[in-house]
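Two proteins were folded this term; both appear here.
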Amino acid sequence: MSTPLEELFIQARAENRAVLIGYLPAGFPTQEGCIAALTAMVEGGVDAIEIGFPYSDPVMDGPVIQAAADTSLRNGTGAKEVFETLEAIAKIAPTVVMTYWNPIERYGVDRFLAQIHRVGGSGVITPDLTIEESENWIMASKAHDTNRIYVVAPSTGEERLRRVTDATSGFVYAASLMGVTGTRTSVSSGARDLVARVRSVSELPVAVGLGVSTPDQAHEVAQYADGVIVGSAFIRLLQESSSLAEGVEKVRELARELSKGLHRP
């Protein structure tokens, strides 16, 4: 059985277009505010959503997302709030959870995946789970019809790239550079090469993250990738707005601009 995420990429390929994926941590800037902002993203043209499970010691997140996660944790965000957000947003767009491994292990692997499936989620991105430690995760995610989304980087060797993509489902998350998340003035030139390398060993869709924040950057990445991931740019708008209503409207407008840039001829 295919997930909504897989169906989205199939449809996008048939339409010869890339998919726009938006990210926010659950509970940021508040629980209700997060759901409102994610809804605005979808209304503005975002195709799929990543919901971050806030974590106190991230290894992949830059300062913007770290600050947002700190706000989420101060708001008391935990698994309950993550799943409530997932359930609300999965009704309007294919949605996945991005989380480090520790929260999954503490919650219980089977219980975590069962809850993802129960509330309509498509998959889980696990940036710090290595392929060597994935045997139980792979078996459990297959049992719960949940996509396993792994992250690859420019430093990933050819043999490892093949092993990781063989274990992946839904899409391959291509980190465009060796570094942490955050908006940048340009997308790393290594992103295109990494996508090409992934495609040489896998037929899965490839989505590029780390650094995309403008319509021009979205358009550039959409020329060679199946998906474009934007997170820090949305978070920054919420952080810099004087009110939640203002921030949500700015998020909606950025989603419109990014969608237009993505689909520009």
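Next, the second protein.
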Amino acid sequence: MQVLRTVFFLLVLGNLLLFAWGQGYLGATGSGGEGERLAAQLAPDRLQIVGRNVPPDKSAEPVRAACRALAGLAPEAADKLIELLKTGDAQLKALQRPHEEPKSWWVHIPPSPNSAQADKKAAELSRLGVKDFYVVRESGPNRYAISLGLYKSEEGAKAYLNVLAGKNVKSARIHVREAAGDKSVVELRGTPEQLAKALAGLPAEFSDATRADCAPAAP
């Protein structure tokens, strides 16, 4: 009986010592108490709990840059457009550059004195087997000329001139149309939202501007 009491006493004492050691009363332990675990956390105030279906925060993503170009503007109109756009949104980046257009070679018969003479030459072309042509009737220096074709290369224009000569068309000529050096392109760079807002309310005086390709962005 005495032996059982002694064993029971030792078991109770062992449990008490184990409890005291686990609570840190007997010195530091490997796992540490609750206060030690809290102190060991790195910036606990910055921890966030995100739900499974909550989308990630996109505020830190870089802003997408876009570019739009308007061509065919006189330099004065381009300056005015840039000033107008910058006034509406100072964050827009706008620049002006020359509008470079390729040359073209126009095969034609020079203007006749009047419409009747132009129609007479047109009828003669039809008799000679020339099918693709039209009489220019718009006002200007080329009124009553007969257009026979517009070519992107001088070689192409000369080759067709030889074809016409083979059909006994002797009055055809080639006129070089130079690039329009007096026009400008305005390039706008910003976010797609900025560009859409800026271009939506342009005055009617810029309605003749045409879309063009932007130059490659500088690295």
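The two ends are 94 Å apart (CA to CA). The beta strands are 66-73, 93-98, 104-109, 134-135, 146-151, 173-177, 184-190, 210-212. These notes refer to the second protein only.
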